[in-house]
Amino acid sequence: MKALLSYQSGGPETLRVGEVPQPVPGSAEVQIAVRACAINYPDVLIIEDRYQFKPERPFAPGVEIAGVVESIGADVTDIVPGQRVMAVLHWGGLAEFAVAPAAKCTLIPDTMAFEEAAAFQVTYGTSYHALVDRAALKPGETLLILGASGGVGTAAIELGVALGARVVAGVSSTAKGEVARRYGAHEVLIYPTGSFDPKYFAGQIKQHCPGGVDVVYDPIGGAYSEPALRSLAFGGRHLVIGFTAGIPAPPWNLALLKGCSIVGVFWGVWVERNPQLHRQNSSKLLELHQRGAIRPLVSERFPLSEGPLAIRRLADRQAIGKLVVTV
Ligand SMILES: NC(=O)c1ccc[n+]([C@@H]2O[C@H](COP(=O)([O-])OP(=O)(O)OC[C@H]3O[C@@H](n4cnc5c(N)ncnc54)[C@H](OP(=O)(O)O)[C@@H]3O)[C@@H](O)[C@H]2O)c1
Known about the structure:
six-stranded parallel β-sheet; Quinone Oxidoreductase, Chain A, domain 1; globular; alpha/beta; 327 residues; seven-stranded mixed β-sheet; 26% strand; Rossmann fold
């Protein structure tokens, strides 16, 4: 089969389309003919050996797929060949075939296209778990989302609105601000890029959130985190989602002064440990999709051979919503 393969550690330009044997499903696994694979930040990290998993080379990156079940292992009873499924893998999605544990596959509703299904799972799964399970976001609370036009950011906007929060979207450009507004943000804050004065950013937040922020959704880190943490109202929650701008080291005394919580969110590990709760969250998300309250923003599509370009765009801060490779 064809796959987009990493033969050596390096950036997206080191990936090549090559031939490898089709993966064979184990007894509790299914083999999926991949139709679409969404790009995620771990794809940037794994090919440079900077991710928690370091697969043997050559391997294909790609964690979030949608496709058609091709064959099933001997112990699989609840999925049959021909069904449309979506699944989250550790890697291997940028290929014609992939295998996934049957227990981790979700049937794709008829109303959802493959590309949408591929873009649905990680972003909404993470943002729902973060806002509901970890932050207990309440109607009327103020939610500040950083990197709000990105994958997890756009999902957080829609879910924040659906949960009744007042959503303030933080982004780095006017164009990204328009996307955030289209996705339902009540207010948009355009923050500076590069080296900037944290006090200036803190002032911007104060202007948009005069009563303080109840929940900060932070997938970017870096110099942005401390001013956002300082902007929390007493009892606020700062959700630690990711570090596209670097790992920050804010002073601990802020947690005491604000009576606030700095809350780690690790969706993938939570799913492994709580399969039942994950299924409940997935059902709620599919319900919201059915009602039209959430809809993945697939902004660009790429063929497999242009997968490296998709990963490059994500790494270079140029992605809006989700980028999807069709196979
Ligand atoms: N904790 C979890 O369970 C979990 C799950 C999924 C993803 N994540 C993490 O969440 C983060 C975001 O993922 P994503 O898929 O939403 O990525 P994405 O679509 O690329 O969005 C990330 C956003 O970060 C902002 N950003 C700020 N500084 C940046 C920089 N130096 N380089 C690139 N982007 C920068 C960009 O928005 P602006 O230009 O507007 O600032 C960009 O839109 C990643 O670190 C990912 O690993 C964590």
